[in-house]
Amino acid sequence: MLNVLFVASEAYPFAKTGGMGDVIGALPRAFTKDVDARVIMPLYSTIPKKLRETFKSLGHLYVQMNDKFDYCGIFTCDYEGVIFYFIDNEAFFNRPALYGYFDDGERFIFFCRAVLDAIPYLDFTPDILHCHDWQTAAVPYLLTHQYRMIFPDMKSVFTVHNMKYQGVYDFDHINGYLHLGFLPSDLEFYGRINLLKGALYSADLVTTVSPTYAEELKDPYFGEGLEGVIREISDREVGIINGIDESCYDPRTDSALTIPFADSDNKKAENKKALQKHLNLPIREDVPMISMITRLVEQKGLDLVANVIHEILQMDIQLVILGTGDSVYEDLLQSVAYNYPDKMSAIIGFDEPLSRRIYAASDFFLMPSKFEPCGLSQMIAMRYGAIPIVRETGGLKDTITCFDSKTKQGNGFCFATYNAHDMLFTIQQAVSLYTETPELFQDLIKKAFNTHSDWTLSANTYLAQYQKLLGE
Ligand code: ADP
To answer: Which protein residues are within 6 Å of ligand 1, measured from CB?
Structure first.
């Protein structure tokens, strides 16, 4: 049995802001045998009370941060067969949101140190620490440079879920927390400290979340300044596509849905009706509903949408957007929705149950990303019978292929160039298939329902990589 401790800043259902939370909630469960995978994460005050009530204390210790010692409580729980550990510190994690604070660098270096200090207190000895994104990037760095004597054989795996976020801070602000006297070259980034760079150099294996993104990262357009490092370490970098938890995203059993449905019945239409009613949109079964559920940031192609939104709304469609993020997009979408009350609804916020009702109600799911490491939303959308319209990049390219009405090959609608009018043209094609050849559209929906994006294959690929790392 191989022991793997997932180190992450979020995991569904405890805390989630995006796809990484889904991944950490699902992947450990996908290892049925051979791997005992557990998770360690911060104990945020936002974790639902019902879940927090199941936590048990394992004790506490003090973590050295610069010249002070910070309290660190350790809690644990068993959630649906997976053991979770939680690092508690009120000053760092009793906040209304997970990220976005002036001291995020300090908060997550504390978390990383606390994880390494807490390991001897756990009833579990990891062979591998599998760390995710910049918030945990100090773990491979500290393991290699400061904790090697304590854990001589422990390996580290680092997964890049999004290269855009690297944890870059001024040396003077965080050097004390990393116990650094000078700025070493494997952390240095334009005179500052780059935590993600340190992880890329220190981890025994670097993975990213799709084969296409693994290649794209070598290119300056995607590499966010670290493309040279990725090229340098490419012999220990692999791309492994994410999956989704198909039991969690199942329209037959999803309690968030107004009317749970199966591919064989006609109840998806009732979900559309219920959502139209809820959002005050005209109740029409025949109108194609296009949705987006997303962080409202440039990465997700919001500038393309903004560019041609009036043209999109000239079509006989309904557009539903749920998201939160940059205020420029939030304001724009709200004002356009205000001007097209019969065609568009923009809901600003993060709302898990509503997101599921939107997937279930929609005919199309729009994801025109500028870059997309993997993307889970397109897979979730297909589970609920919403056909993806995507730009061919990263994981979108690996999961969605263009539908060809002659050969009936393909499972969605795609465009290659990051261009608003290419996107508009693709949306028009999708809408015309819906209205003019409904029988072809129904075939596409059936195909979406029958697409399996579960974790089995990817979990086996991770297992093979873990075994290789340990020389098994
Ligand atoms: P990313 O991780 O880049 O945000 P993904 O497509 O990988 O994008 O994953 C997004 C996840 O977050 C999906 O589960 C999606 O349904 C969910 N999500 C995004 N925005 C919202 C929102 N405003 N409300 C509820 N869920 C959301």
So the answer is: 18-20, 22, 293-295, 322-324, 350-352, 355, 374-377, 380
- CA 172 – ligand 1 centroid, Å: 35
pLDDT in tens, 115-124: 999 999 999 9
Q: What is the pLDDT of residue 359?
A: 98
Tell how far the Cα of 346 is from the centroid of ligand 1, in angstroms.
Answer: 15
CA 120 to chain centre: 30
Q: Where in the chain is the domain with CATH 3.40.50.2000?
A: 2-243+455-469, 267-449
- In sequence order, which ranges of 175-287 are alpha helices (DSSP H)? 195-202, 211-216, 220-223, 227-232, 268-278
Phi, psi of 168 (to 5 degrees): -110, 125
Give residue-wise pLDDT tens across range 1-45.
Answer: 999 999 999 999 999 999 999 999 999 999 978 899 999 999 999
**Domain covering 2-243+455-469 assigned CATH 1.10.357.10 in the classification:** no
- Count the residues in the chain: 472
Torsion of CA 247, 252, 255, 258, to 10 degrees: 150
What separation in Å is there between the alpha carbon of 370 and the centre of ligand 1?
16
Best residue among 377, 390, 393 to mutate for probing ligand 1, ranked by most atoms within 8 Å of CB: 377
Residues in the chain with pLDDT values less than 70: 264
pLDDT at site 198? 98
Written out in words, the top-level CATH class of the domain with range 267-449 is alpha beta
